[in-house]
Amino acid sequence: MQLIRDDRKISIIGGFTLLGLTLASGMAVYNDMCQQIESTLGRGFDVALQGEVAYLKVKFLKV
Could you give the CA distance from residue 32 to residue 55 in angstroms, rounded to a whole number? Predict the structure, then answer.
């Protein structure tokens, strides 16, 4: 009977450890990906705005 309780305790502790590690790694990856996405989108918007400005300059200079 004692063996079953010990096995259950070990299983519960192992499950909580696995859950904690999974949550910690998930949060770390989420944080890293957010920073990379923000950086990529920022560069993309900058390039798009520069292209729009160049396009408008060409259009206005033609007129």
Answer: 35
Question: Scanning the structure block, which residue is given the tokens 């299983």?
Answer: 11
Write out the H or E segment, with its range, that includes residue 1.
none
Report how far apart, in Å, the C-alpha atoms of 28 and of each of 17, 21, 23, 32 are.
Answer: 17, 11, 9, 6
Q: Is 60 left (phi over 0), alpha (psi -120 to 50) or beta?
A: alpha
pTM beyond 0.85: no
Least confident of 12-16, 47-51, 54-58: 54-58
Query: According to DSSP H, which parts of 1-63 are helical?
Result: 2-62
| Cα 45 to Cα 30: distance, rounded to the nearest angstrom | 22
**For position 28, what pLDDT does the model report?**
96
